[in-house]
Design goal:
55% helix, alpha+beta, four-stranded mixed β-sheet, Glutaredoxin, single chain, 200 residues
């Protein structure tokens, strides 16, 4: 299997966390690509018509894309039980993915759009999504972040670490002490250390 990836992507990091936590990291060849919506990578686009990462190319089978699809496949392949929480766990993963979406949208606005065309209200709207999601996790999902490792934990860790990496002034820790304490502890896991963008 080949994983098209970029270490800075939170969606890729979620997949990398699943690979590490299910002991499958040696089962994939990592193919680093540089791709954006305005400068897509041709090799990646040949495997994923959306031109997005991550994408998991499999021998003799359709390429998988969208991090949720890839993570579910890898969990099933390893019998990892990361989705044992059922629909609640899938909603928590979707909440984390929403944080990632908002964070990546902010990054694109800041890094790809000319400075004189950047939209401050758009950036603030994306930041509010991140803050709203974190507040919801603080109020509702903290118990799901405890216990044996699950997809919700991995997705949330990838999401919050990305916000810290690209948008350190987002302020998500304010009013969310349990979530902040959880991430501080979770970041010590070997899978988190091995998948850091600066560890690639």
């Amino acid at each position: 299997m080949k994983l098209f990836y970029s270490a800075a992507s939170p969606f890729v990091r979620k997949v990398m966390l699943v690979l590490h936590e299910t002991d499958q990291i040696d089962a994939v060849e990592l193919v680093q690509v540089a791709t954006t919506v305005i400068a897509p990578d041709a090799t990646l686009a040949a495997s994923n018509p959306l031109g997005k990462i991550p994408a998991l190319a499999r021998d003799g089978a359709v390429t998988l894309y969208d991090s949720r699809v890839i993570c579910a496949f890898l969990d099933d392949r390893a019998g990892g039980g990361l989705y044992a929480g059922g629909w609640d766990m899938k909603v928590l993963e979707a909440t984390a993915d929403g944080i990632m979406d908002a964070g990546v949208s902010m990054s694109y606005e800041k890094r790809l759009r000319p400075q004189d065309m950047q939209w401050d209200d758009w950036l603030e709207g994306q930041r509010r999504k991140i803050l709203g999601a974190c507040a919801a996790v603080e109020a509702r999902w903290i118990p799901s972040l405890a216990g044996p490792v699950n997809i919700g934990q991995l997705a949330m860790a990838a999401a919050l670490a990305y916000v810290d990496f690209r948008h350190p002034d987002a302020g998500w820790r304010e009013g969310n002490p349990q979530l902040a304490a959880w991430l501080a502890e979770f970041e010590s896991r070997p899978s988190m250390q091995a998948s850091r963008p600066d560890a690639a």
